[in-house]
Amino acid sequence: MSEESQYIKGRGAQINVQNRFFKEAYEMQDDFLNYCQAEGDAPESNRTHYLEVFPKTIVNKVESPDVGMGFSMNSYQGCEHGCIYCFARNSHEYWGYSAGLDFERKILIKKNAPQLLEEKLKSKNWKAHTIVMSGNTDCYQPAERKFGITRQCLEIFLKYRHPVSIITKNALIARDLDLFKELAKDNLTSVNFSITSLSEETRQLLEPRTATIKKRLDTVKLLSDNGIPVNVMLAPIIPGINSHEILPLAKAASDAGALSIGYTVVRLNGAIGEIFTDWIHKAMPDRADKVLNQIKECHGGTLNDSRWGDRMRGEGEFAQMIRSQVHLARKKFFANKVFPEMNLSLYEQYKGGQLQLFT
Fold it and tell me: What InterPro entries does this protein map onto (predicted)?
């Protein structure tokens, strides 16, 4: 089969890689693929499947020292956005699936997440800490439109006046503007909005089922205009793909009202290295080797970098160039902007579910 016929439009990953926890694997032979092509049949379904799960806990303590959050929670496991570089792909293997296409097509719906969250916030031992929704997978991915778990959780955060931060790249967050405005009145929320490129062509390849760039910038402006602090994540920066866009991205974010920017240098840990390598040879064959080599130069000669402190920022000339551009962008476009700290003081008063008027 030709490279063109093998490319699965609307998906990031183009393969299902072996789950590292499984001894056995299956693969599709060329004769079967050629038969499917001749018959006009797809070798497997490209539909998204929603699978309900009921975890025992929902709030996770984040041990990684360079992530920038203390606690996180995820409404969904797997993500239909299909971002080819996503670090969360590896976590799908713990559920018995592949980090490749399975990550995008088998979405686990944590139906009891709101109940688990409320139980956590009602616990007498819990002290207020900012909980980040989407520490792993996007809480506003397409599944949220159908299941509404993220909105239910936001209602609980508001009920208990507990601080919550969001990481997303989906304009669906605008649906819940009413809740964010109420939370923002008491400085209880912030949004980290991911914008990786200003090029729609690049976005469609890197992040095939995400909101358009225009919708993302419009959403940043909508949130900012309504008093919700927004940090734009220029993440990840991928040498040879979007590394030339740092300054225009930062300007667009600032013009839309963002108060700050953050960034990471792409890292391709675990199965992601194989998935990304396969993808770029199909999606960008003319620059595949150049991009892969430049990524390696940022991580000590390897795609897989797990070193605390270095893995998120990289090292070497390319990483330094990226760091310098981000520094310049902050100085040029965000010099007079301040990102507020979250309010941790109200939660104890509302821990019982309503303001405690009597003690």
Answer: Elp3/MiaA/NifB-like_rSAM (IPR006638), MJ0683-like (IPR040086), rSAM (IPR007197), rSAM_sf (IPR058240)
